[in-house]
Design a protein that fits this description.
Blueprint lengths: L3 E6 L3 H4 L8 E3 L2 H10 L3 H7 L11 E5 L8 E2 L1 E2 L5 E6 H9 L8 E7 L6 E5 L14 E4 L21 H6 L4 E8 L8 E2 L8 E3 H10 L4 E3 L7 E3 L3
Parallel strand pairs: 2-5, 3-7, 10-14
Antiparallel strand pairs: 1-12, 1-13, 2-3, 4-6, 6-8, 7-8, 9-10, 11-12
Helix pairs in contact: 4-6
C-alpha cells in the first residue's frame, strides 16, 4: 500500500545555521505581503480565491537570508502564506520533474534570494476543499480538548461528522486525526488537506529526496496513519 508522510522544515541548527529563530528566508517583496493580506488571511478567503490565487501571484519576488542562516534545499520562511510549504532548491524542482509529479499537485514560483548562487522557488501545495473529504469516515479531534470540569486534556476523543455541512456549521477548533479521500487521490504524490498542518508526500518522493541528499526537512514518522483512501 502506498504511504504518504507529512514533512516539515527542520529546526536543527546544525542544518539551518544557528540563530534565535526557526526561519531561514524572509520574503521581502511588499507586493507579496499585500497580496497575502487581500486574498489569503484564512481558509475562507483562500477558498474564495483559489481558482486564481496562484496565477495572480506577484512576479519578481525577492528574499533575504536571516542572520547566520544558510541556503539549503527545504527552508522555512516568513511572512506565512496558506498553502506555501517552503522555499525549495533547484534540486527539488528537478526531482519533481524527473518523477513526473502532476502539475496540478504543486506550484513553484521563482524567488531571488540575496547572495544565493542558485535558483530557489516558493513551493505551494493547493489545499483540497473540505468537500473532498469523505464524511463520516474522516476522523477529527478537538484542538483544545477539555473534560466535564473544564480541565485541559492531553488528548481529545475521536469526533466524526455526518456531512461536510455539519462539520462547517459546528463551532469549535478541530484538526484531522485521519483524513479519508476518494480513491482517485491515491494517484497523487503530493496532497494537502484542510484542518491538517503540512502537506503529505509519497514514499517515492521521499526516497528520491534521500537518494539525492536533500537537506532541510524532517519526516513526521507516524503521519502515514493520518491519510487514507476510500476503497469504494
Amino acid at each position: 500500500m502506498k504511504r504518504y508522510y507529512q514533512i516539515t522544515t527542520t529546526i536543527d541548527p546544525k542544518v539551518i545555521g544557528r540563530s534565535s529563530g526557526p526561519y531561514t528566508v524572509k520574503i521581502t517583496s511588499n507586493e507579496f505581503v499585500r497580496y497575502n493580506a487581500s486574498t489569503n488571511k484564512n481558509l475562507k478567503m483562500y477558498f474564495a480565491h483559489k481558482d486564481t490565487i496562484y496565477e495572480n501571484l506577484p512576479d519578481n519576488l525577492t528574499g533575504t537570508l536571516e542572520r547566520k542562516k544558510k541556503c539549503i534545499d527545504y527552508m522555512d520562511y516568513y511572512p506565512k502564506f496558506l498553502s506555501l510549504n517552503a522555499v525549495v532548491s533547484e534540486r527539488i524542482k528537478r526531482i519533481f520533474e524527473e518523477l513526473n509529479v502532476g502539475k496540478n499537485e504543486y506550484i513553484l514560483k521563482p524567488i531571488t534570494i540575496k547572495n544565493a548562487d542558485e535558483p530557489y522557488y516558493l513551493l505551494f501545495v493547493p489545499i483540497l476543499d473540505y468537500s473532498e473529504l469523505i464524511f463520516p469516515k474522516t476522523v477529527f479531534e478537538d484542538i483544545f480538548p477539555k473534560d466535564a470540569f473544564g480541565r485541559v486534556l492531553e488528548k481529545g476523543e475521536d469526533i466524526v461528522f455526518n456531512s461536510v455541512e455539519e462539520y462547517l456549521s459546528t463551532k469549535g477548533a478541530y484538526t484531522i486525526r485521519k483524513g479519508v479521500l476518494p480513491k482517485k487521490y491515491s494517484a497523487y504524490d503530493i496532497i494537502r488537506i484542510p484542518a491538517c498542518p503540512e502537506a503529505f508526500f509519497s514514499e517515492r518522493i521521499l526516497k528520491a529526496f534521500e537518494e539525492a541528499g536533500i537537506v532541510g526537512y524532517d519526516i513526521w514518522t507516524n503521519s502515514y496513519k493520518k491519510l487514507a483512501f476510500d476503497e469504494e
